[in-house]
Amino acid sequence: MLIDGEHLSLKELYDVAYNYEKVEIDATVIELLKQRRLFLEEESKTNTIYGVNTGFGILADKKISPGDLEILQRNLVLSHAAGTGKTLQKELVRAIMLVRTNSLCKGLSGIRPDVVSHLIDMLNEDVIPVVPEKGSVGASGDLSPLAHIAMGMIGLGKCLFRGEVIESQEAIKRAGLKPIVLKAKEGLSLLNGTAFMAGIGGCATYIARQVFEEAITVSAMSVDALMGSTSPFDARIHLARPHPGQGYVSKRLRDCLEGSEIRNSHLKCDMVQDAYTLRTIPQVYGAICDTIEYTREVIEREINSATDNPLIFDNGDAISGGNFHGEPVALVLDFLSIALTDMGNMIERRIDRLVNPKLNDLPPFLTTGREGLNSGYMIWQYTAAALASENKTLAHPASADSIPTSGFQEDHVSMGAWGARKLWMILENLMTMISIEALLAYRALGFRHPKKSGPSIEELFGEIKNVVPEYLEDRYFGDEFENVLEVILERAGLEVLGRKVIGK
Hints:
By secondary structure, this protein is mostly helical. Helices cover 57% and strands 5% of the residues. A three-stranded antiparallel sheet has the order 4-6-7. Strands 1-2 form a two-stranded parallel sheet. The chain has a two-stranded antiparallel ribbon with strand order 3-5.
């Protein structure tokens, strides 16, 4: 994969993070980086430039002598590596490294090509710094987590290499590389930026879109299993309210249910309207689809942006600004968190309809055998309710908060890093809820057979049937839900993620 600072997509971000695709820098970028580095070196001989020959944050008024510039960058990295908490998943660190590398490839940071090449070499050799998940407020960039990555680059701290956490110096050596010595501004350029929130948020957004597609099919299976009407999916309804996502989801539902023998069997029933969780899937899922798309646009713009400070332009001007501030990303991560949480709310209500004997004509809790002896899938609705409720708490917008840092110099922050981490947790919960709905819809649909549903629904039914045993009496069901989640993720093209989530 060639990167040039301009064209990185979320799919490519996911492929490098999870599928370990190799990365190269476009040749034109190398020349641009060399030129901008010369501009910076010339300007810094006669001018005071923030972060090049000054201190940082509130210490920006402290001039640094030429002999101390390398010490300044090393000290910056070490002092800012203040993360805490659990170690961030390796694949997400890979995503962060790629985002930072691509941003540096824009040539506006004034760093040497060697620094960018070193980051790419570490990615390609899978030398991944150990990064604690907590510590960024998402304002002057994701300083703390990015400092841990920079610390690995200079051979300090620890890295994960071939399944083993070892000293960075040793990991770099085993990979046939050497630690890099950071020169003027280069430590600052590695730390300054939104790569943590954009990397995690970008992966989450891509995964959400892939899984969303499967969730539509699962919802259609629930509709048929519950003898729902297809009239609410009529194209004319959605042309009358032309939100693009709504139109898309309604068409997907029509396609899934086309030719269903189950639907044809109750076309003339007395039921006038279904519950909202069946009838308004296009409206709710459509709005979620539009939210995912909007988030994708913003994050793809961000991962192809220069988020450093100061920026070095082609006439040699070094201009201090605020592109490191995470607000654009923080807001859309909160928006997507709210959307996915609401999607989970609707899924949980359909799960209840699938097992609740007061809301359907199916066996209570989808049991077989002697009534009362088996509880069936009763408690899996509890699990879905717990996950839905947890997401409601996590969906509180991180960007609504701000705490001043750096002696009031950085007096408004985005909290986008926390927004990204919360989104990831919400997404994991949602994927579990989708797998619960899928298995319960599969069980319910089995009671409608031998009448068949639409071809695409029957295809999913067959794939689930291949991985879960027949239900005759109560047993431990947890493995079945994991197997179904694996089916969903494989159908979504996320097989590697499935192995990470399920632990296989």
